[in-house]
Specification:
This protein has a five-stranded antiparallel beta sheet with strand order 1-2-3-4-5, sandwiched between helices. The protein has two domains: 2-195, Magnesium transport protein CorA, transmembrane region (Methane Monooxygenase Hydroxylase, Chain G, domain 1, Up-down Bundle), CATH 1.20.58; 220-259. The chain contains six helices and five strands; from the N terminus they run ααβββββαααα. By secondary structure, the protein is of the alpha+beta class. The protein is rod-shaped, with a radius of gyration of 35 Å. Helix 3 packs antiparallel against helix 4.
Length: 260
């Protein structure tokens, strides 16, 4: 397809060769370019950009690996390729929803979920990127459909079906993000509650042992004239005073706890 290399603007050629180029639709005097970027996932999320060139004679798919134009001849092959890639994106969203459901079950079982933030951040990052890709893809495909709607051989219903799938998948992405946000709020609330209980327990222990520390420090001074220094049972008496202080503090804590 040498004539296409001569016909297409060099800046547009750079766009076609870019493997991660965002979605776009360009109308020129002698050709139109459609690039649709869709998310896919192997080990991690990646962007697959599919580029097509349309002129008065045929439809061409640009292979980004070989940098060659493949003559698709009809719109049907364009539809089949985009429909296949859209289905892959939809399946990927189903997998992400299953991952979020698994996180939700682990979290609501009140089990110790030490890796929650790692899973949460990973899913949040993927969903945010998917949302940006699909939002732009929807707009670009809508422009493409409106431009070619009057063409006799244009498969309007087929491409509108792809557009509806992309729109539904994007809505599913937003729902998954809302669910992740709710899980994060629940996770932080539960952690805050646990921390408040720990601080409450430490406060009670401090209230009990603070007077005991004061008495132990006071009577433990290495100086003359301390109370009960000359009494044979001075240590027992001091221990009794400390026990009385501890019991009194516990009683006060329980009393004010009932009042609150």
């Amino acid at each position: 397809m040498t004539h296409l290399y001569e016909q297409i603007d060099r800046f547009h050629l750079l766009d076609l060769k870019n493997p991660t180029h965002p979605s776009m639709f360009v109308e020129e005097a002698t050709y139109d370019i459609l690039i649709l970027a869709l998310p896919s996932k192997d080990k991690e999320l990646k962007i697959d950009s599919y580029a097509f060139v349309f002129d008065d004679t045929s439809c061409y798919y640009f292979d980004k690996n070989t940098h060659e134009f493949i003559d698709f001849e009809t719109m049907e092959k364009v539809y089949e390729l985009l429909n296949e890639k859209t289905n892959i994106t939809m399946k990927m969203l189903v997998s992400l929803h299953e991952s979020i459901d698994w996180m939700e079950e682990n979290l609501y079982e009140n089990a110790y979920f030490s890796s929650f933030m790692r899973y949460w951040l990973g899913n949040k990052k993927d969903l945010s990127r998917i949302n940006r890709l699909l939002t732009l893809s929807e707009e670009v495909l809508e422009s493409f459909i409106q431009t070619y709607l009057k063409e006799e051989d244009f498969l309007a219903i087929h491409f509108k079906d792809i557009h509806e799938h992309l729109s539904r998948t994007n809505r599913s992405t937003l729902l998954a993000m809302d669910k992740l946000n709710n899980l994060y709020n629940f996770y932080t609330s539960r952690n805050n509650e646990r921390m408040n209980k720990t601080i409450y327990l430490l406060t009670i222990l401090s209230g009990i042992f603070l007077p005991l520390h004061f008495l132990a420090g006071y009577f433990g001074m290495n100086s003359q004239g301390l109370p009960f220094n000359e009494i044979p049972y001075g240590t027992s008496l001091v221990s009794l005073i400390m026990a009385t202080c501890a019991v009194t503090m516990i009683g006060l804590i329980l009393f004010f706890k009932k009042r609150l």
